[in-house]
Design goal:
Length: 185
């Protein structure tokens, strides 16, 4: 089920996933995802920005990157594949529910335009995790509402730097903000 941006360039593609167990990603599925990515990098699908895989009960999404950026990182212990969640961090995994929330035309366009980051020197595309997106939205709203100072608290490895960077990037677009500084320390 491909989705398109307003200029009719494809932005996302969904693919059925046979390797998913009911309780989540199994090791064999990681290999299947890596094979899938290898195949797609040799086709026009390499120009998509986002991929979605599902067995209908479990749905995952990930940014489109070249093969070297789509590998299991033993040091970080994660694969850059995420499940969607609501603001209370309740996972939305069934494909129909996922599509109703994540694949709405405006929601998908907003995710791609506001919550993906290109790391130019590495030629790497990153998509923010759901809780990071909600944190950025709350930071921006707090500033727009002039609700005072605040801070972002997350555990180690949770994406504080990316969250702060993206919030700052979006806030600097506000004409009433003259300076914006983000620090992860």
């Amino acid at each position: 089920m491909p989705a398109s941006s307003d200029d009719n360039y494809p932005t996302a593609a969904a693919k059925p996933a046979a390797g998913l167990r009911e309780d989540g990603i199994e090791f064999g599925f990681v290999g299947k995802l890596q094979e899938l990515k290898y195949e797609y990098t040799k086709t026009l699908l390499c120009f998509l920005q986002l991929f979605i895989v599902s067995n209908r009960d479990r749905t995952y999404y990930f940014a489109n990157n070249n093969t070297r950026h789509f590998a299991f990182n033993a040091d970080e212990r994660f694969l850059p594949v995420y499940e969607f969640a609501d603001e209370a961090n309740k996972k939305i995994t069934h494909l129909d529910d996922f599509a109703a929330h994540f694949l709405q035309k405006c929601a998908l366009g907003t995710t791609i335009s506001r919550y993906m980051v290109l790391i130019a020197n590495e030629q790497k595309l990153m998509i923010m995790r759901p809780y990071q997106v909600y944190a950025v939205q709350h930071i921006v709203k707090c500033i727009e509402d002039d609700a005072g100072n605040g801070y972002v608290w997350h555990t180690t490895g949770s994406g504080k730097t990316l969250t702060s960077f993206k919030a700052s990037t979006l806030l600097k677009l506000d004409e009433h903000i003259h300076k914006c500084l983000a620090s992860s320390r």
